[in-house]
Batch of 3 targets.
Target 1
Amino acid sequence: MTHADFDVIRRLLWESGTWAFVGLSGNPDRTAYQQAELLQQRGKKIIPVHPSRAEVLGEPAYATLAEVPVPIDVVGVYRRTSQAGAVVDEAIAAGAKAVWLPLDVIDEAAARRASDAGLDVVMDRCPAVEWTLRHRK
């Protein structure tokens, strides 16, 4: 099953407002930081979700998705594949509208659970690359 639908990717990149990045630390060398910074620069509200951070990219961080006090449009799952399923389950429980699993984070069972719960799913895709490819309206 593919989770790279052109229309879903485009909608999430252009129409979503709030992205929670699970695994977002303060390390600018990490992919999650770079992707969150890019989306923040493009007008998205970034919510860092990391148990040991107080703030990232000028935004308050939360230890879990359940603690995020605002509606979440997209959950970026910046954890290892072995941990992705648990994060997807948290995203479903938190009422997120979509989950985005970046390059090389592939969990078909978790993607199916998210889809079955009504969430949009993008998997094995990079927001920065997709932004460049899909930037043509």
Target 2
Amino acid sequence: MPRKKDTITLSIPPGTKEKLEAIARRLNILWGKDPSISGLIVAIAQHAVEVGKPFTLDFNQVNALQQAIKALNDAGQIGESQTVLTLLLERGNLDASIRQSLLKQASKLLQAWRSQIDEYRQKQQPFYLFYENSQGEELQYTVRYAEPRFFDKRYYLLIWCEETEDVKNSIPNLPELWHNRTLIFDRIRLIVPASGEWREGLDHLKVYLHFQGWMVKSYERREDDLEDETIGDVRQVVRRVVNEFWLIREVLRYRQDCVIVSPQSMRDRLKQELLAMCQLYDIETKS
């Protein structure tokens, strides 16, 4: 059944519609390819976006916070330094030269995390990692394996950690992947050494994919592909999967030309995504 929605009529001055559409486009609130004013209003009502101007910092305030960043770096408190720097970049009304300087500092901080993690990897040293996710939640992981990996035009940190509670509800049928995480470097807040043993690698699932149609010849072999052979009109690829998110994103992009054949748990995970999309677009499905 279609969902019931409230309807309102707005009286706005000339030119306001275009301004609202520009804001919606900037915030990536779209209906198809077009900016959605309705979506923008809903996002404001749900406090998903903030309205108003960011706070303005005068010269003395900016200078004081820059000195704080330097002091935190010198003290080895890279996570705290990153927090202050991100605050300046995201919330401050900065001129171009100061913003460029802070962006360079942010790059150096990310490299500092990379260097420290690379050192632990070489020593096979487990470590505690303190992380802030995209929802502002502070998480702690006991890391026993880590490796940087390139996805979607940026580097991520893949880890094997002891903690599982934060993902059990999101992927309950994939316990094989509960210990794996994909983290963003600039959300790391602190790293300190831990005791215990280092692992040899990440957990993984062996997933069978069938590419059809134009993808039989177009598919480019990946680093994690274990087998790749063409059988009749189907190209069968067996892949070592350590994170279900990236696999599902890829399969959805190829639509009907890529099918997850097994295991059933991964097929069910994709079905959940498809059913959720059907509900969003009021498509009725058989129970």
Target 3
Amino acid sequence: MRTEAIDPPGITWQRVSPKYVTVRLVEWAIGNLITVIVLTLPLIFVLLGWWRWPPLWLAITVPAVTLVLAIWRLLLIPRQVRAIGYAERDDDLLIRGGIFFQRTMTVPYGRMQYVDIGVGPVERGLGLCTLKLHTASPGTNATIAGLPAGEGTRLREQLAARGEARLAGL
């Protein structure tokens, strides 16, 4: 997958693990389950006669629209995960993501202050991790979620070493 407008030529993108879809599905389920339940409470209260407001049509429409949007987001999750990628170059790391609103970020090794790995409970169970790159500018902090734990560890060590080498050369 290459987007001519924003991708540098000649880049071979490394993809995150397909298991990351499961992590995103769990996050989706938890967030949307709570949202739909909360937005359905007015409908239940109206049907039980406990509330007179909102009108029945509004009490039905709000959770229904929310459910439709949630299903739309659910269908996009596998494609969003496939869009995440990274590429190591000689002087910097490229990170890309997004389907509709695509983004390619360049993080120079010399700008990296530290590289961090985070693991949530679902990621841990699937053997995945999230790599976080911290720079002096908060706008350029970047993450690569869904990396296999071994690749995350390798990448952390590789990026830290390259960052130190570039910083020492300044």
